[in-house]
From TrEMBL, chain A:
<dbReference type="InterPro" id="IPR001308">
    <property type="entry name" value="ETF_a/FixB"/>
</dbReference>
<comment type="subunit">
    <text>Heterodimer of an alpha and a beta subunit.</text>
</comment>
<dbReference type="InterPro" id="IPR014731">
    <property type="entry name" value="ETF_asu_C"/>
</dbReference>
<dbReference type="Pfam" id="PF00766">
    <property type="entry name" value="ETF_alpha"/>
</dbReference>
<feature type="domain" description="Electron transfer flavoprotein alpha/beta-subunit N-terminal">
    <location>
        <begin position="4"/>
        <end position="187"/>
    </location>
</feature>
<dbReference type="InterPro" id="IPR018206">
    <property type="entry name" value="ETF_asu_C_CS"/>
</dbReference>
<keyword id="KW-0813">Transport</keyword>
<dbReference type="InterPro" id="IPR033947">
    <property type="entry name" value="ETF_alpha_N"/>
</dbReference>
<dbReference type="InterPro" id="IPR014729">
    <property type="entry name" value="Rossmann-like_a/b/a_fold"/>
</dbReference>
UniProtKB/TrEMBL annotation, chain B:
<keyword id="KW-0813">Transport</keyword>
<keyword id="KW-0249">Electron transport</keyword>
<dbReference type="InterPro" id="IPR014730">
    <property type="entry name" value="ETF_a/b_N"/>
</dbReference>
<comment type="subunit">
    <text>Heterodimer of an alpha and a beta subunit.</text>
</comment>
<dbReference type="InterPro" id="IPR033948">
    <property type="entry name" value="ETF_beta_N"/>
</dbReference>
<protein>
    <recommendedName>
        <fullName>Electron transfer flavoprotein subunit beta</fullName>
    </recommendedName>
</protein>
<comment type="function">
    <text>The electron transfer flavoprotein serves as a specific electron acceptor for other dehydrogenases. It transfers the electrons to the main respiratory chain via ETF-ubiquinone oxidoreductase (ETF dehydrogenase).</text>
</comment>
<dbReference type="InterPro" id="IPR014729">
    <property type="entry name" value="Rossmann-like_a/b/a_fold"/>
</dbReference>
<feature type="domain" description="Electron transfer flavoprotein alpha/beta-subunit N-terminal">
    <location>
        <begin position="22"/>
        <end position="218"/>
    </location>
</feature>
Length: 317, 266
């Protein structure tokens, strides 16, 4: 069976959930080989985790020569790995950075590229959600090695024992790839809440919060949810950009999305329309967000949310 | 110095966007416009010029697209770009990322040969394809450093520094011109064309190039040689409208919690 290269999504060796989703999808296409860009010391621990989801091999690419530069070195390393392994496909978690890696790799390999897939079947046909979620598109790479970036929450991770054989891969990074240098990195502080793109429940606030996110955050915490925001809330400086949901923020596809004080503009919908269940609290009964909801409350979020939070806390005892 | 800003003509996101029978995006039947996200690119190109008083800097707006796509270039000229290039050829229709980036790269090389291309500015994504891949692909093809997804752009001499949001961090990235830069909608509001700008735009040079002008053959691009193939497109069924209740004396919270409990979210 051919190898399928799967790029591991991790933060300092902490493997993220989309990796397991990707490995699950990769097993439909061949035998998953996970690719770890990171410190070799963390390789074994990472391998232990990914082998539980069927990784037969784990290529450990020492990122000492890679992490200080933007995108280009990773694309070179993947090209070399692809040339060595002739994979059936290369799958990457659909982050901005990985999409750019995938774009450069597509040119290097002369291969077709599909971005932001929400599903990939046995034959390699992908499903994408386009035009703000108004259409789904089935597509396939017809030339070269399929290079596909896959969005979080595209599959339920299924365990399967893999050999998890660790193999160090020495990538050669050219000087030409080291021309855009990362001169400083400021890690974002963790909120202690689930990651926005991975969360099962997302509770968002918009301009209707008037800048007070406490009701939104309290409600989110009672449900164990991640917190999101509309661009209006971000532009007003109420929430950092990392929390923005929508076309120019994050796309989320949780089991439950609760929009509070958000009107439901097309650019916001683009980031949340594929959520399984949608709920809104908005004081304007004409707000377009109500066209999308499974359940809606016409009311003031500043009274509805705290009361709901209290009731949920009571129920939980 | 010459700056090339890549602007895409896209179907209006607030209109009913749809596909043609061959599954390509309908770029004619739906009203189009300069992608809103590329307005930020034009803005940053203009600011780059304005911040460097005394230097001779020109801004060239470049688009690839059907006849009507020239509107995207016109808008950029109205905002303040100095000249425009529209690459249009029936053979380009249906190109995927590989094809589009190839034609753009060839056009940039031609501009470079004529007037230089010291800085290429793109938007963070096209509002129709939303790939966010073309800038990186241009950097790959042109062999230039890629400095992408900037929320803040600063430069001094031939050094450019940007700030960008990455997954779990904020980064500062530096590179030496010439570079390919892409900017986000956090980079600063784009200006509106002034009346004067609109009048002046009419006299600005605007060239139309075909594939032949770029030294490309029809069989190198377009739908027939695309590296990917769309097999089907389906309109998402409209969500069936759910129950909407009006909060009266605190009834809303109770109804909301009951709903969430009935769906096992609590
Ligand atoms: C190129 C481009 C990209 C964009 N990208 C994004 C994006 O990624 N994400 C995004 O969100 N937007 C994006 N936008 C902006 C988008 O068009 C909207 O402007 C934005 O989503 C509006 O945010 P909002 O719903 O919070 O504010 P508004 O539209 O002002 O809506 C506020 C809502 O709150 C309600 N409200 C007010 N007070 C209360 C109260 N006390 N209780 C309950 N409800 C109340 C009002 O009835 C109203 O419906 C983009 C726009 C463009 C042009
Ligand atoms: N047909 C095109 N003409 C001009 N510029 C384009 C075209 N397609 C993409 N671009 C540029 O590449 C950026 C990213 O596009 P995309 O990768 O499609 O999301 C856009 O914001 C534009 O700056």
């Amino acid at each position: 069976m051919s190898e399928v290269l799967v790029v591991i999504d991790h933060a300092e060796g902490e493997v993220k959930k989309p990796t397991y989703e990707l490995l699950t999808i990769a097993r439909r296409l061949g035998e998953p080989s996970a690719v770890f860009f990171g410190s070799p010391e963390q390789g074994d621990a990472v391998a232990e985790k990914v082998k539980k989801y069927g990784a037969a091999k784990v290529y450990v690419v020492d990122d000492a020569q890679i992490k200080g530069y933007l995108v280009a070195p990773k694309a070179e390393a993947l090209q070399q790995l692809a040339e060595k392994t002739s994979p059936a496909a290369v799958l990457l978690p659909s982050t901005f950075e990985n999409k750019e890696v995938a774009g450069r790799l597509a040119i290097k390999l002369g291969s077709g590229l599909i971005t932001d897939a929400v599903d990939v079947d046995e034959s390699g046909t992908t499903t994408q959600s386009v035009f703000a979620g108004n259409y789904t598109v089935q597509a396939k790479v017809t030339t070269g090695t399929p290079i596909i970036t896959v969005k979080p929450n595209s599959a339920a991770p299924e365990e399967a024992e893999g050999a998890g054989a660790v193999e160090a891969f020495a990538a050669t990074v050219s000087d030409a790839a080291k021309t855009a240098q990362i001169v400083a990195t400021q890690p974002r502080q963790s909120t202690g809440r689930p990651e926005l793109t991975e969360a099962a429940i997302v509770v968002s606030g918009g301009r209707g919060t008037g800048g007070n996110f406490e009701p939104v955050e309290g409600f989110a915490d009672s449900l164990g949810a991640a917190v999101g925001a509309s661009r209006a809330a971000v532009d007003s400086g109420w929430m950092p950009h990392a929390f923005q949901v929508g076309q120019t923020g994050k796309t989320v596809s949780p089991q439950l999305y609760v929009a509070n004080g958000i009107s439901g503009a097309i650019q916001h919908r683009a980031g949340m329309q594929t959520s399984k269940t949608i709920v809104a609290v908005n004081k304007d009964p004409e707000a377009p967000i109500f066209e999308l909801v499974d359940f809606g409350v016409v009311g003031d979020l500043h009274t509805v949310l705290p009361a709901a939070t209290e009731k949920i806390t009571e129920r939980k005892g | 110095m010459n700056i090339v800003v890549c602007v895409k003509y896209v179907p209006d996101a607030t209109a009913d966007r749809k596909f043609e029978d061959d599954f390509t995006v309908d770029r004619v039947g739906v009203d189009g416009l300069l992608s809103e996200l590329d307005e930020y690119a034009v803005e940053q190109a203009l600011q780059f010029r304005e911040k460097r008083e005394g230097e001779e800097i020109t801004v060239t707006a470049l688009t690839i697209g059907p006849e009507k796509a020239v509107d995207a270039v016109r808008k950029a000229l109205q905002m303040g770009a100095d000249s425009g290039v529209h690459v249009v050829d029936d053979a380009i229709a249906g190109s995927d990322y590989l094809g589009t980036s190839l034609v753009l790269a060839k056009a940039i090389e031609k501009i470079k040969a004529d007037t230089g291309a010291d800085l290429v500015v793109c938007g963070m994504a096209s509002t129709d394809a939303s790939g966010s891949v073309v800038p990186a692909m241009l950097a790959e093809r042109l062999g230039m450093p890629q400095v992408t997804l900037a929320s803040v752009v600063e430069s001094q001499g031939d050094q450019v520094r940007i700030k960008r949001d990455n997954e779990g961090s904020t980064e500062v990235v530096g590179a030496t011109l010439p570079i390919v830069l892409s900017v986000t909608d956090q980079s600063g509001e784009a200006r509106y064309p002034s009346f004067k700008g609109i009048m002046a735009a009419k006299k600005k040079p605007l060239e139309t190039w075909s594939l032949t002008d770029l030294g490309l053959d029809a069989d190198q691009v377009g739908l027939s040689v695309a590296y990917t193939q769309v097999e089907d497109t389906t309109e998402r069924p409209p969500r069936t409208a759910g129950e909407v209740v009006t909060d009266e004396d605190g009834s809303g919270a109770g109804a909301l919690v009951d709903f969430l409990a009935s769906k096992k979210f609590i």
